[in-house]
Amino acid sequence: MKVSETTEIEIFRYLPDKDNEPFFKSYEVPYREDWVVLDAINYIKDEIDGTISYRWSCRMGVCGSCGMMVNGEPKLACSTFLKEYTLGKIRVEPLQGFPVERDLIIDINDFMEKLKAVKPYILRKEEDEKPIEEGEYLQSPAELARYKQYTLCINCMLCYAACPIYSLNSEFIGPAAIALAQRYNLDSRDQGRNHRQEMIASHEGIWECTFVGECSVVCPKDVDPAAAIQRAKVSSTIDWFMKIIMPLSKTK
Amino acid sequence: MVLQYDIVIVGGGGAGLRAAIAIGETNPKLNIALVSKVYPMRSHTVAAEGGAAAVIKDNDSFSDHCLDTIGGGDWMCDQDAVEIFANEAPKELIQMEHWGCPWSRELDGSVAVRPFGGMKIERSWFAADKTGFHLLHTLFQTSLKYNNLIRHDEWFATKILVENGRCQGITAIEMRSGDLKVIAAKSVIICTGGAGCVFPFTTNGSIKTGDGMALAYRAGIPLKDMEFIQYHPTGLPGTGILITEAARGEGGIIVNNEGHRYLQDYDLGKPLDIKDPKHPVKKSMELGPRDRLSQAFIKEREKKKTIPGPFGDVVHLDIRHLGKKKIDKKLPFVRELTKNYVGIDPVYEPIPVRPVVHYMMGGIDTNIDCSTNLPGLFAAGECACVSINGANRLGSNSLTEILVFGARAGNAAAGFANEHSEIDIKALEKQRDEEFKRITLNFLNKDGGSERISTLRKEMHQVMEECVGIFRSESGLKEASNKIEELKDRFSSILIEDKSLNFNTELTSALELENMIDVAEAIIFSALSRRESRGSHQRTDFKERNDENFLCHSLAYRTDAESRIEYKEVVITKWPPGERVYGKEE
Amino acid sequence: MTTYRKPVSNTWWLERKQYFFFVIRELTSIFVAGYCLFLLFIISEISDGQEKYTLLILSLKSPISLVLHFISLPFILYHTITWFNLTPKIMKLQIGEEIISEKLIVGLVYISWGILSLIIFWLILGV
Q: Buried b vs exposed e over A74-101: b needs ≥16 C-beta within 10 Å?
């Protein structure tokens, strides 16, 4: 239980307008039982140092803006309570594995391009399209359950920060993008798996993953991208065998 | 250098993305720019939880949806707009389903619906309790299909450019470089959302600062019905985090410090036993309209029947009787939020809640085609006021609204762009230079300055909370109006420590505060002028609804001093003004 | 406008304990592969007749063989346990709307291992 009234927050600063080298700056903030790391950073910006830049919005773990490294672990600043850190100072850094634009703001363009590259939308053959007047595609609760977990991704990129492969090789498509592809592949309304395989079953796709598993551990929404990737490996391997055994049959 | 597009959309939430997709579908040759101060998946649509309303059941009708909405809005809704809304709602939600939205389903695979406040029959489609999240991500992912849509993420719009009596574009700061860019366009659609951050205690995220409303206000467009602010009855104490109305739709009850379901004392019907298969009764008790429930809380607090807590008084929302299975299936996010932010598991304990600012019924004045009175400028979503919500919005109407009117705005803007091709590039460049000077002089290169942004913001928050809350009075509103004028003056002494160009969030915070002060001014003067009580605008000095003088929309125009308030008729087609009835057999 | 990239050191796998244990897990596959080859060698030796078999058993009891076995066993066990625990990530079982819990799948895997081990012990000790 924290006894003192204040706590020390050390924040990674990078001001490319002034200096090419980053540095750390320490701030003393009030310690409050119900405060999260985001509250502390907001306090610093409001009262102590207006020059600190970071992303945030919803404060409830659903917009995915505020991903940061807190004492070396990828976390959402709005869902990480100060009371979890009772010893010493709290060190806040930008998410691992991404280029830093300024202070805690990372460049996420690579991630955005990867999201687009996996074709994350319903693809159907034209002859199978249903007009709006005929109503919804029927989907049973069991069919919904097949992919539902993968719909929960808030694009916070904590999984990319936790993945050592992504830090070593930013060509890797990464956990969230592959989980998103699987979300559509497993959706009973989608017929587009073949269109996504080129990206997913490539060197930079699922086969770059060595199943460290940390992505699923840090995911704040239990999306379980590691499972999405391993199962994609299984289904891609089955595809490969099927092509050898039955070269003329079509996969989905 | 001027960037040129056929259409610019400001705001990348549900309405903005829907507008973009509508144009992409019908006019693939038009170039669209989607300009947003955040990446689209961060837009606040993502936080909406409960559901989106559209008629789907056999025993339901468009007429019922209209009447529920109009009654819910205390007869301030424009009925032609409401009729269009109710008619187009089911098509929009089915379109979302075709685009992949994971609606919750019945056993036979058809889309499921649940009851919601103020609605006679179940018509709220839902995706667990993260409907807004799923809608936004479906829209964002679908938008990636369109090659004619170019996104400018993290560009902060600062001005609507008017040339020759027409809207011809915007200026925006590219946050990464700090460059002030000018984007010329034949049509501009504003989809920037509401302004809950004008108040200290809100469900809204930090980005909801009314930017588009302020931009339109400064361009001479009136803001309509700004005095109508919705308080959601169940927000978590301290953070204001939203606990969806769906918790009550599934059967949750609200009790005071005596365990008494106090809503029955406020003309909202008689409670049924929670085990009764007919509970919850629609349009009754906990499924009454939001304004009445929030007002009941204030009255209970005056009677000292609320429960004191570390963040002020609360009441209890009890969903324990729903059982763990139902909660995990239909309200999993509610369970996650209460466990994380108040340390309570709603399966075993009641949830402490209090009313929180949630939604703005008012906004940029538009007609049913989402056009403003400035040719070439359109608006849709929470930032606009068509009006379908009148004096109080029913839960789950807003998510449908952004889709119906997002699409309509997109189509209207495309039509306008196809008919108006001339843009005055030189004049726009000149306007950009002037805007550059304004921002540099007043913000970046400012010397001195003594007022911290947070100080001015806190003072604005304090006066809005105390004087422009659920119950208002002439003296309180006058105090608020004086304060807001004072803050406008003091704003000129604002202190900006950050002089850098690259990702200067202190600059954007200051610009947001400037926007919020403008929006607050419109709210206060609209509230002062409306000398009646209707829906979510309650005056302790004018307690009754006054159809004779005030069955009309307020229009707040910007002047050099206080807002100028004018009035505009409410469109009445089929439903003459009546009494709002809740808790009684129909 | 320059961005900053934090350099990744060659000892990245020492910086977090989860990464360290991952690398250990990957290294254990050397022992598993090695022992598979060894088993194949034993099988080929056994099929060469009684004399070779007796020599083989003697060499298995040598100090070097025992040391190698003592080192290999914990690594192979570690490999087995980590991969058993990861099975639910690879294999998802869904019955109707319900997804079988991860703990249940892991439990089933351990139970199957137990049963197979018992059968093998019975074969070795019983026959």
A: bbbbbbbbbeebeeeebbbbbbbbbbbb
pTM: 0.95
- Structural domain total, chain A: 2
Cβ within 8 Å, pair C92-A227? yes
d(CA B10, CA B210): 12
CA B353 to CA B237: how far, in whole Å? 6
**In one letter, which amino acid is A218?**
V
Domain B2-51+85-100+128-230+358-429 grouped into CATH 3.30.465.10: no
**Are B365 and B224 contacting, i.e. CB atoms less than 8 angstroms apart?**
yes
Ranges in chain B, pLDDT < 70: 585-586
The percentage of residues in chain C with a pLDDT greater than 90, rounded to a whole number, is 65
Domain that holds residue A97: 6-106
Secondary structure (3-state) at B518: helix
Looking at residue A185, its pLDDT comes to 97
Question: Which whole number is the average pLDDT over A26-32?
Answer: 94
Q: Is the CB of A213 inside 8 Å of chain C's CB atoms?
A: yes
pLDDT for the residue B444: 84
| Residue A1 counted as domain residue | no
Domain B437-561 sits in CATH at: 1.20.58.100
| Partner C contacted by B502 (CB < 8 A) | yes
* pLDDT at residue number A3: 55
Q: Give contacts of B502 with chain C, Cβ < 8 Å.
A: 1
CA distance B363 to B224: 5
Q: How confident is the model at residue A4 (pLDDT cuts 50, 70, 90)?
A: low
Asked if the Cβ–Cβ distance from B100 to A154 is below 8 Å, we say no
Instruction: For the domain covering C7-86, report its CATH number.
Output: 1.20.1300.10
Closest CB to A212: pick one of C1, C8, C22: C22
